[in-house]
Amino acid sequence: MDWMSFPPLNALRAFHSLYRTGTMVRAGAALNVSHAAVSQQIKLLETHLGVPLLDRSGRGVRLTAQGSQLAQSLDRGFREISDVISELTQQEDDRPLQISATSSFASNWLLPRLADFRMRHPEVNLMINPTAELQTLEPGGIEAALRHCDGHQPGLETHLIVASPVVVVAAAQLVGPGPVTQERLHSLPWVQELGTNEATDFLKSQGVSQDTRINVTSLPGNMVIEAARSGQAAAVVARAIILSEIASGHLKVLHEDGQGKGYYLVTRPGPQRQALRDFSRWIRRQGQGAPGRETVARP
Questions:
Q1: CA pair distance 67, 79, nearest whole angstrom
Q2: Cα separation of 246 and 299, whole Å?
Q3: Matching CATH topology for 97-164+261-297 and 166-257?
């Protein structure tokens, strides 16, 4: 196809609108332009093609034989394009919106709020992938992730949902009522979320040698919190997902770190389908009380 010789699309649309509506006035209204603009575009199209498309000899306008041939061809082409676009957008609308999040965040922070999202957006089907592994964001697959980080995700856009430092917690029945010494902290059994190294990384940051025998069990995120609550072990978790356990006294904060971190909504740059836009707006409202909300596009 020689695009350099192809007529301007606006001129083709104006001519097709005249064919569909029957008059310049109605054609202009359909395109949200004046009837004079439609007439001018059709004259440009006739000049470009070098053939008369309209018979203007009477009071109105009628299609010439060449005009009728072009109009019918345009009608078939535009209808086919419209059908394909409708099919593609319908496929996108029907496809579930896939969100990646750690199981601890999904079960303790996101799940209690999802009823509100379903009420507001019953047309959106969600698929939550509870994993601590970093998932690739791509069209047709996982479109957004909720990650605990500092907001630096190269090549992606991040928006802070809730600020949350990392805390070391344990039940009072495990550590007792008084202060916990570093030596005592190192001797505790530990649990960490499956697929992460939160406990081992914390202990290394506290100077614990790799040769030191530390009892660490990796569990799904919701089981990590339950194990800590029941006094089985200490855990390293984000504060935001255990606020109620801390407030009730079920868990005791032994150490806090990770200022400047939080749970971020992470998406690919560029256009987003309606379901993702709806979820993004909703979850931002859920985190409106979080300080330092920002959108960051990383190079």
A1: 18
A2: 38
A3: yes
CA atoms in the 13 A half-sphere facing the CB of 215? 7
Beta bridge partners of 88: none
Sequence-ordered list of residues with C-beta below 8 angstroms from that of 81, at least 6 positions apart, any chain = none
Residue 166 contacts residue 237 (beta carbons within 8 Å): yes
Query: Which residues of the chain form beta strands (DSSP E)?
Result: 54-55, 62-63, 97-101, 126-130, 142-149, 157-163, 166-170, 190-193, 216-219, 234-238, 252-257, 262-267, 295-297
Measured distance between the N- and C-terminal CA atoms of the chain, rounded to whole angstroms? 37
Residue 298 has pLDDT above 60, yes or no: no
Measure the CA–CA gap between 267 and 85, rounded to whole angstroms: 24
3-state secondary structure of 85: helix
Q: What is the pLDDT of residues 70-83, one digit of tens each?
A: 999 999 999 898 87
Distance CA 12, CA 42 (A): 8
| pTM for this prediction | 0.66
Distance in angstroms (rounded) separating the CA atoms of residues 263 and 109: 10
CA-based nearest residue to 209, from 186, 235, 189, 182 = 186
Rounded Cα–Cα distance for residues 203 and 190 (Å): 10
Helix axes 24-31, 9-21, angle to 10 degrees: 120
Just give the CATH number of 97-164+261-297.
Answer: 3.40.190.10
Residue 291: phi, psi to the nearest 5?
-75, 155
Q: Which residue has the tokens 């601590």?
A: 132
Class of domain 166-257: alpha beta
